[in-house]
Amino acid sequence: MLNGKLNINFVFHQPKLPTLIGVDIGSSSVKMVELSMVGKNSNIYRVEHYAIEPIPKDAMLDGNVVNLEAVSESLRCCWKRMETRLKTVALALPAAAVITKKITVPAGQKEDDLVFQVETEANRYIPFALDEANLDFQVVGPTPGNLEEVEVLIVASRKEKVEERVAVVLAAGLKAVVMDVEPYAAQAAFALIENLLPGGGKGQIVALIDIGATGININAMHNGQSVYMRNQPFGGDHLAQEIQSYFNLSPEEAEAAKRGDEPANNYTTRTLQPFREILALEVARALQFFFTSTQFTAINYILLAGECAIIPGLDETIAIRTQVGTLVANPFIGMELSSGVIPKQLSADAPSLLVACGLALRSFDPS
Ligand SMILES: Nc1ncnc2c1ncn2[C@@H]1O[C@H](COP(=O)(O)OP(=O)(O)OP(=O)(O)O)[C@@H](O)[C@H]1O
Ligand SMILES: [Mg+2]
User: 183: Cβ below 6 Å to ligand 1?
Assistant: First the structure.
């Protein structure tokens, strides 16, 4: 799709980008966000449009497009509700669809030499042929403690994973210009939130935890850099299944129950409370994995994202279970809103829009 030396399709090496709609294709819904910048280089953003549209059950499975027709129809409806004229979009692959590897190389290399080295390294780490891969890299910065070396992040994915998402978008009449990775996009949005933490989050470890329909994604960040990522296959769909079997409901009724129109009046105590506890346990487990696989011994903040983050009382349950201050992510704090955006609704939707917001921010990346 883009610039070419390494059949690069990911976000890192982009020429100047047009304004993009951030499009997050999740397993339960598609989310779109369009931002603009107020004044040139002001760093103040304005939410122009956003929309969320459900994706029919099983049309997306484990981050793969199973039913192209159905997913592109959801995209089309979502775009229509955006009431925008923009058709260029930034997409992301789920973390599970990419292989990432950090390597260290001598500092000050020419681009061509770096490209050669990245290809050689990628050949060693990617379990499929390079010509079946989309590959990109980014120089992260100097290796800590060694100014003669730099760290380079390599990202690779099977071509078909990229192509199926691009195809879905094309079928919806839109054009994919950027392919990102979900946790990196969330991280871009997190950078806006970080400033609001005490001390601007400097020197602290913040665990960004996205709880979606099918998975919990943990991204631990230290001074704006990811130091740990992990996915646990547990999410809101498990609650739907619980409700469905406990109350003998259809999947649709169970979903409606979860979102508040209770058909069974003891839903909250019977299923929601245990589900909150299970989620908190999963989060605590994820933190344990983090501590045992890194040199870090504490987490300063947990930031909850994904639509499950809005489950009433979940932040408190997690804070009690983990003994870590827990906040619900809202990347739109401090942004201006266009007249069509309802502030209260946006605050409620904000945690589920983190990835889409990060993708929309790619429009303003310095080239
Ligand atoms: N009020 C609510 N109470 C409980 N669960 C909710 C509520 N609102 C939404 N959910 C659940 O949140 C999940 C959707 O979250 P989200 O939109 O972040 O997931 P996704 O991005 O589509 O999926 P994934 O990231 O796993 O691919 C669904 O399982 C949904 O039922
Ligand atoms: Mg998601």
Answer: no
pTM: 0.90
Provide the domain limits for residue 310: 197-328
| Distance of CA 42 from the midpoint of ligand 1 (Å) | 34
Length in residues, the chain: 367
Q: Same domain, yes or no, for 227 and 354? A: no
Q: Is the CB of 52 under 6 A from ligand 1?
A: no
Which ligand is located closest to the Cα atom of residue 312?
Answer: 1
Pairing of strands 45-54, 336-337: parallel
Q: How far does residue 269's CA lie from ligand 2's centre (Å)?
A: 26
Nearest CA to ligand 1 atom 31: 236
Based on the fold, state whether residues 296 and 222 are members of the same structural domain: yes
Is the same domain home to 57 and 178?
yes
Between CA 309 and CA 352 the distance in angstroms is 8
Mean pLDDT (the chain, rounded): 87
pLDDT tens profile 257-297? 777 655 555 666 677 788 899 999 999 999 999 999 999 99
Query: Ligand 2 mean position to 31 CA, how many Å?
Result: 9
Q: Are 360 and 22 in contact (CB under 8 A)?
A: yes
Q: Pull the structure tokens for residue 25.
A: 């294709």
Q: What is the CATH number of the domain that holds 309?
A: 3.30.420.40
Same domain, residue pair 85 and 49: yes
